[in-house]
């Protein structure tokens, strides 16, 4: 004779399996709940300018902590790949200038544009961000402090960041990463608008 | 379609029209019938597909062919495994690989030979200290995957070729 508890337990188990089988969202979605970017206008109800400024950056962090960005802003000397941020295979290293060791420069495989038949992302300036611009493993708050520091952001002013994030074509690759890769949230234009709103509101950090 | 003209093993090819989505590996193997360059993983991880690219400054490097377009080789001078032996005469490195029984199925061997050749040419330009030899060989061959051999005999073959010509390849030869 079957125990009375078996049927409810079985139904619960089946429900859990179905939820799990639906697939867990990527890291960025799980953390922020969306693959879109809110517009600066959507924060207009926040009357405290510092809090609104910090909120702009929190929204922008969805991009800055996305694997499309952090894979080439690594904490160490090896880039990462994919949404799982596994170590880059074949094993390649930063080298002296971020473009790889002499025997395996990034442009050897990464052409000036994506090459989808080979699954190879590309850009004419494909390389690692400098060590001082490492974002891997950092929170939005930590990245904020780093991105405002001229010693760690390539000597950029806050105004320079608007163009860098909003218009730089290597940064822009994050939104056109080639087949098989999920783009960063929103669009580059939307990210640029958030940076501009953040800068104009005092560049407060969350 | 894109125009492609390049030099392979000292012989000019093209200009010819090739599809934009044609990989260099397919160009060599399917278009030209040069099947010495292998297709292994298709993800630039096993390095069995590499060819040697000769640069204008006299240096060379290996280049995967499975994930890059044929068009990206326009204007370049490359060497494939077919270009190593001359008039049936094997290179010193090829002979060493045979003598050491360095390969079994041979699928990864063209990649190892190309990489090894680049290393020998680099050492001839810039010799290393004998104390750094093992690391130099290991770093050069790093990334080339072999399912058969366990890599030891490839390494030993390289070492023996270098030590047999130590005055040429080693600072303290």
Per-chain topology:
The complex is a heterodimer of chains A (206) and B (173).
Chain A (H helix, E strand, L loop, with lengths): L5 H16 L5 H6 L16 H16 L2 H4 L9 E2 L4 E2 L12 E2 L2 E2 L34 H9 L9 H10 L1 H4 L15 H13 L6
Antiparallel strand pairs in A: 1-2, 3-4
Helix pairs in contact in A: 3-5, 3-8, 6-8
Chain B lengths: L1 E7 L2 E8 L5 H8 L19 E4 L5 E4 L13 E3 L12 H8 L9 H17 L7 H9 L10 H13 L1 H4 L4
Parallel strand pairs in B: 1-5
Antiparallel strand pairs in B: 1-2, 3-4, 3-5
Kindly describe this structure.
The complex is a heterodimer of chains A (206) and B (173). Chain A is mainly alpha-helical and 206 residues long. Chain A is built from eight helices and four strands. Chain A has a two-stranded antiparallel ribbon. In chain A, strands 3-4 form a two-stranded antiparallel ribbon. The longest helix of chain A has 16 residues, at 6-21. Chain A is globular, with a radius of gyration of 20 Å. Chain A starts with 5 loop residues before the first helix and ends in a 6-residue tail after the last helix. Chain B is an alpha+beta fold. Chain B has helices at 24-31, 92-99, 109-125, 133-141, 152-164, 166-169; strands spanning 2-8, 11-18, 51-54, 60-63, 77-79. The model of chain B has no long low-confidence stretch (mean pLDDT 96). At the A-B interface, β4 of A face β4 of B.
Question: What is this structure, in a nutshell?
Answer:
The complex is a heterodimer of chains A (about 210) and B (about 170). With about 210 residues, chain A is mainly α. Chain A has helices at about 5-20, 25-30, 50-65, 65-70, 140-150, 160-165, 170, 190-200, and strands at about 80, 85, 100, 105.
